[in-house]
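In response to reviewer comment 3 from the previous cycle, which asked for concrete evidence that the modeling workflow produces usable outputs, we include below a single protein chain processed end to end. The sequence was submitted unchanged, and the resulting structure tokens are shown without manual editing.
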Amino acid sequence: MTTAPLISVEGLHITFPGRHGAPPARAVDGVDLDIRPGEIVALVGESGCGKTTLARALLGLVPPTAGHVTFDGAPLDYSSRALKAYRKRVQLVLQDPSGSLNPRHTVYDAVAEGLRIHGHGGDERAAVTEALNRAGLRPPERFFLRYPHELSGGQRQRVVIAGAMVLEPELLVADEPVASLDASVRGEILALLLRLRAELGLSALVVTHDLGLAWNIADRVAVMYLGRIVETGDVEQVLTAPRHPYTQALLSVLPEAPGTPVVLTGEPPDPARIPTGCRFHARCQVLTSGEADTAGVADACRTRDLEVLDGGAQAQVACHWARASVAT
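The workflow returned the following structure tokens.
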């Protein structure tokens, strides 16, 4: 892709103060990431890796400690007025539709809320009708006076998506958008997101721990570990031939994966105490098996940090062993 990014993150660091004198937690510890018009990027990683914090930074909800976010060629302005205008163009869809919807608001009011906040000057009823129609709630008028408790989980998530789409955003940030839904409904919601991309040219960042979801919806995947992206590239390339041991471990536990699942030992390190060298080395199956020694990179794994990966679309990996394997 040669198209200029719609949104770009460069050198992003987000640090939270430690409690009771503890060191600050480096939730996002150096990230570059581009999302181009019409592109869906999946941000994948286990809980606590920093992916939700990175997503919140894209929405302007968390100002960076260092680095910057650029949208449509201009740096993100964190003034209240600028953020209000920005959030008309960038919308959020959360994991739990029940928590996203006010139980006292009808479906009509839930979808119209964004229009009212942003001072929509057109026909509100027509805009709500169109948004519900796009979200697959047909006929839309049948849902106007319903309350969230009267809907199924899939219908509630469609209302949340309609509420985001009513403002005709250019970018959707979806944080685990199908995690709370039954398996039978997940495919419908993913198909809806793909249809919105096809019809409207919508871009999306989909935050997930589910590599199967990434496979089904994304053009590109970025795998995050302990505050940093450790592998990125075309979704088919990364998920069929993963190069980073962490990506390999994540893929190995999928039901359809060949071979023996890789069981990682221990928990991810504390983001306030990121280890020296490769941040994955304390749990790395390649290091413990002796393969890194054979490749002559074991010391580098333990002591030499890896640079931040470029935010572009090319396949990249932050791993001494994977790079040594290519070189040989």
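The two ends are 29 Å apart (CA to CA). We consider this sufficient to address the reviewer's concern, and the full set will be provided in the supplementary archive.
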